[in-house]
Design goal:
The protein contains 13 helices and seven strands. With 324 residues, the protein is an alpha/beta fold. Strands 1-7-6-5 form a four-stranded mixed β-sheet. Helix 10 links the parallel strand 2 and strand 3. Helix 1 packs across helix 6. The longest helix is centred in the middle third of the chain and has 33 residues. It starts with a helix and ends with a helix.
């Protein structure tokens, strides 16, 4: 092998190692939500990348084999060249120089380059990655089979995709959307509030019992109408004073929107059984529960089953959009 051929092989090995190290980091760094957008558009590079994310062992097998082949061939050829040029000092000098070059130009720089704009750059080189997978398949298949044998996490555990999007992904996408003019600051604010809702509990966003507007089981329809007019609330909990507990929730529209009702009748006759939630319940679970129960109001209880407040759909929505 002449010197020119050896130099060409050294350059090819350096480029190969830089490619495999960089694209592996880039694919891992890809935002799944942004990738989905390009997949919907039928982008060939995005479709290829989605396959590697869904079958992660194929990516790891290809990059692992490619990187190690490049390193081994590079080390052998560079040591041979250095030994001819420098004699007995050739191998140690070659080892130091190769280590420095690989660390800077084949590891750090390509990883940083792919990581800075992963979707754009990985899409550009996805076809090359696919070609290298086909070329290295005889070797990478053995690596994949061995990894599945050693990693006992269920069938195709290495191929199972991670959750497609996380809360942090959505926050980042919202920030990027505002920067690109897709979302307004108000819309980004609302998205962040939705993400933060899971960190709050019913007890933190409820109207406490001291501020609740209620009626008693003996309150007449006429009195209820007056209280509703003065307070501005159309829906109120009904409290049994003698037994000291809540018997239901009454809505003025369900009383007055239909046949005529005697004004001296008790509101307790029209009350629906109350919906209860625990004060420790995550706030983002409350709206689905209300929707399933078809109740826009619920009473909040503590660990001792005492009513400590109430929540309406408006209270939960205000945590997202602000004051209604």
């Amino acid at each position: 092998m002449n010197g020119f051929t050896e130099i060409i092989l050294i350059v090819i090995c350096l480029l190969g190692q830089a490619f495999f190290a960089g694209i592996e980091t880039g694919v891992i760094s890809i935002s799944r939500m942004r990738l989905r957008h390009f997949v919907r558009q039928g982008d060939p590079g995005a479709l290829t990348l989605q396959i590697y994310l869904e079958h992660f062992d194929r990516l790891l097998g290809t990059t692992l084999v490619g990187t190690n082949l490049s390193v081994v061939i590079l080390s052998v050829i560079s040591a041979s060249v250095a030994a001819r040029w420098l004699g007995k000092w050739g191998e140690p000098v070659s080892a130091v120089i190769v280590a420095l070059v690989v660390l800077v130009f084949c590891e750090y720089l390509p990883k940083a380059w792919f990581h800075s704009r992963p979707i754009e750059r990985c899409r550009r080189y996805a076809g090359m990655l696919r070609v290298m997978e086909i070329i290295l398949k005889p070797l990478s298949l053995g690596i994949i089979a061995l990894s599945r044998l050693l990693v006992r996490g269920g069938e195709d555990s290495l191929s199972s995709p991670a959750p497609f999007v996380t809360r942090e992904d959505l926050k980042v996408l919202a920030k990027e959307g505002e920067r690109d003019g897709v979302l307004s600051p108000r819309e980004r604010f609302m998205i962040h509030r939705v993400m933060e809702l899971s960190h709050k509990t019913a007890g933190q966003i409820m109207v406490p019992v001291a501020r609740m507007t209620t009626v008693t089981s003996e309150t007449s329809v006429e009195e209820f109408r007056t209280i509703a007019r003065q307070s501005g609330f159309t829906r109120m909990p009904v409290r049994d004073v003698e037994k000291d507990h809540y018997t239901g929730v009454v809505n003025i529209f369900s009383i007055l929107s239909g046949r005529e009702v005697a004004m001296d009748r008790r509101v307790a006759d029209f009350a629906r059984a109350p919906l209860y939630v625990n004060d420790s319940m995550p706030a983002d679970d409350i709206l689905p529960i209300m929707r399933r129960a078809r109740q826009p109001m619920c009473l909040v209880r503590n660990s001792a089953s005492e009513v400590v407040g109430l929540l309406t759909t408006e209270d939960v929505l205000e945590e997202i959009v602000g004051k209604l």
